[in-house]
Write a structure and sequence with these properties.
240 residues, mainly beta, seven-stranded antiparallel sheet, six-stranded antiparallel sheet, 17 strands, 0% helix
């Protein structure tokens, strides 16, 4: 058997022709270091975890408290990016939080936030999300519904001025006249941080207090649509 390497290419017999490709050219991107805390409460002008009172597991005449959170997942349901005049980008992320809760005696339960608030858990204080949580002048967190649906979710909103030092690249003023100008949110990774505390109660239902917060690495890319002409070959082109 020959040991010669196969050097042929699928493009060897192709005949290049002019092709027009539709792309989005990235002009600038917002890329802060250290991540953004997108699930939070506010105390004394600082972000703190959200307190969730998880209902204890029913066990005959007693209840079993939370022992640990075994697994967690951030579920991104929708993102939206808006260019506000020529001054800032408005970032919006709708999300849910899935927790796998372990109780004493190795009992388990899944907890979907915010869906299970009211049936399996409550906020501490109970009216926490009756109005949006505001942090500074340009950031908020609210419990809402996903646009066009009745599905509950959290909505994190942040206005990022184009003067923010975390922007890489420059946006010339004339670029804002381009009707294809768009920004796109990319979430690279997320970390759900939790801490099991002591006793709490949702009305008359005994529970266990759990601190929950979420930190995500977020990039916002701003670009325009452009056509690029190259010489290339359509490999799946039909030849009649």
């Amino acid at each position: 058997m020959s040991n010669e390497l196969i050097t042929s290419s699928i493009c060897e017999n192709s005949n290049p022709e002019p092709l027009e490709i539709f792309v989005k050219r990235i002009i600038a991107k917002w890329d802060p270091k250290g991540g953004e805390q997108i699930f939070f409460n506010v105390s004394e002008d600082a972000k703190v975890p959200v307190d969730i009172c998880v209902h204890n597991y029913p066990n005959y005449e007693e209840t079993l408290p939370v022992n640990c959170i075994l697994s967690e997942k951030l579920m991104i349901k929708k993102t939206r990016q808006e260019i506000i005049c020529t001054s800032k980008a408005r970032l919006k992320i709708w999300f849910k939080i899935l927790l796998v809760v372990q109780f004493d005696d190795e009992k388990f339960e899944t907890l979907m936030l915010p869906d299970d608030i009211g049936s399996k858990a409550c906020y501490v204080p109970t009216g926490l999300f009756e109005s949006p949580i505001l942090f500074g002048k340009n950031e908020s967190l609210a419990e809402t519904t996903i646009p066009g649906t009745s599905e509950r979710a959290y909505l994190w909103t942040l206005d990022v001025p184009f003067t923010d030092p975390n922007w890489v690249g420059e946006l010339p003023r004339e670029i804002f006249d381009n009707p294809t100008l768009q920004s796109e949110i990319i979430i690279k990774c997320s970390d759900i941080i939790f801490d099991v505390q002591g006793d709490c109660a949702c009305g008359e239902i005994p529970g266990t207090l759990v601190h929950v917060s979420v930190i995500s690495d977020i990039i916002d890319k701003v670009g325009i649509h452009e056509d690029i002409c190259i010489n290339g070959t359509l490999l799946d082109k039909c030849e009649l």
